[in-house]
């Protein structure tokens, strides 16, 4: 079974899905990501689906599940790079991707995560580079 | 993209594993491109095929998928038949309801796939297996 690599860039985990995933590969990615979030303490996950030419209900559910798992582990997930034809098909299929944040590309996804963390840290305008959380709130 | 695929005859892919579902997607895409479906229609029919091939595997216990390039004299299209010898579908109307599932999925496979194609036909009965035929025409 193929495994999808997970890259750490600063405080963000980047997953760029480059293969037509089997269902097993998708489930393995969920588990690998959960472990990497805890191991690295990253606060953001970006899933780049630019290379995916379809997202069916299984992969859609995987994306929703990853977003939920990340949230429980104090990380925000942003799905980026969805192709227009994939978006049209997803909506017609009936998948709403509830709870998933999206951005058009990786750069905007990173901005979104940075803004989120800044908000969490009491709107400190200097904290736009995803700071480590302070010892106590 | 069409290398190795003879479009003059139906292409058959057995479905017995996750990897076979991936192969079905690739075969359907190859034929959809060859019959000149638009990018959006290619995406729709490949997505529908992915849902139905997974159903063949998960609910039908495996089976076969047959993909054929067709032409009705006015326009080309793609026809795909998903056949299994599984338990069949007892209540087809219920199975075609959005959100209904017996397998722990989202319940969008059958109903969603029907929305993504031009023609959708199901032949099934308890104990008789299931045969689903879908067609997408080039516009």
UniProtKB/TrEMBL annotation, chain A:
<protein>
    <submittedName>
        <fullName>STAS domain-containing protein</fullName>
    </submittedName>
</protein>
<feature type="domain" description="STAS">
    <location>
        <begin position="2"/>
        <end position="113"/>
    </location>
</feature>
<feature type="compositionally biased region" description="Acidic residues">
    <location>
        <begin position="121"/>
        <end position="130"/>
    </location>
</feature>
<dbReference type="InterPro" id="IPR036513">
    <property type="entry name" value="STAS_dom_sf"/>
</dbReference>
<dbReference type="Pfam" id="PF01740">
    <property type="entry name" value="STAS"/>
</dbReference>
<dbReference type="InterPro" id="IPR051932">
    <property type="entry name" value="Bact_StressResp_Reg"/>
</dbReference>
<dbReference type="InterPro" id="IPR002645">
    <property type="entry name" value="STAS_dom"/>
</dbReference>
<feature type="region of interest" description="Disordered">
    <location>
        <begin position="116"/>
        <end position="137"/>
    </location>
</feature>
Automatic annotation (TrEMBL), chain B:
<dbReference type="InterPro" id="IPR003594">
    <property type="entry name" value="HATPase_dom"/>
</dbReference>
<protein>
    <submittedName>
        <fullName>Anti-sigma regulatory factor</fullName>
    </submittedName>
</protein>
<dbReference type="Pfam" id="PF02518">
    <property type="entry name" value="HATPase_c"/>
</dbReference>
<feature type="domain" description="Histidine kinase/HSP90-like ATPase">
    <location>
        <begin position="40"/>
        <end position="139"/>
    </location>
</feature>
<dbReference type="InterPro" id="IPR036890">
    <property type="entry name" value="HATPase_C_sf"/>
</dbReference>
């Amino acid at each position: 079974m193929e495994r999808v690599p997970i890259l750490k860039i600063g405080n963000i985990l980047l997953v760029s899905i480059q293969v037509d995933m089997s269902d097993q590969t998708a489930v393995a990615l969920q588990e690998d990501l959960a472990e990497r979030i805890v191991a690295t303490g990253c606060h953001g996950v970006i899933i780049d689906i630019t290379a995916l030419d379809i997202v069916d209900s299984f992969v859609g559910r995987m994306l929703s599940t990853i977003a939920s798992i990340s949230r429980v582990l104090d990380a925000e997930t942003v799905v980026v790079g969805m192709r227009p034809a994939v978006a049209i098909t997803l909506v017609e299929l009936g998948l709403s991707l509830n709870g998933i944040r999206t951005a058009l590309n990786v750069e905007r996804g990173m901005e979104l995560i940075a803004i989120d963390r800044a908000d969490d840290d009491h709107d400190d305008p200097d904290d736009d580079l995803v700071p480590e959380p302070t010892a106590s709130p | 993209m069409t290398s190795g695929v003879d479009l003059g005859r139906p292409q058959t892919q057995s479905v017995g594993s996750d990897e076979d579902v991936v192969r079905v997607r690739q075969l359907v895409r190859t034929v959809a491109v060859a019959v000149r479906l638009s990018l959006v229609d290619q995406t729709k029919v490949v997505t529908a095929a992915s849902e139905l091939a997974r159903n063949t595997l998960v609910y039908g216990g495996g089976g076969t998928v047959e993909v054929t390039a067709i032409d009705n004299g006015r326009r080309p299209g793609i026809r795909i038949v998903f056949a299994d010898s599984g338990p069949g579908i007892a209540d087809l109307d219920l199975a075609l309801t959005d959100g209904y599932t017996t397998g722990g999925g989202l319940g969008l496979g059958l109903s969603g796939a029907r929305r993504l194609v031009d023609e959708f036909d199901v032949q099934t009965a308890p104990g008789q297996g299931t045969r689903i035929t879908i067609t997408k025409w080039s516009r």
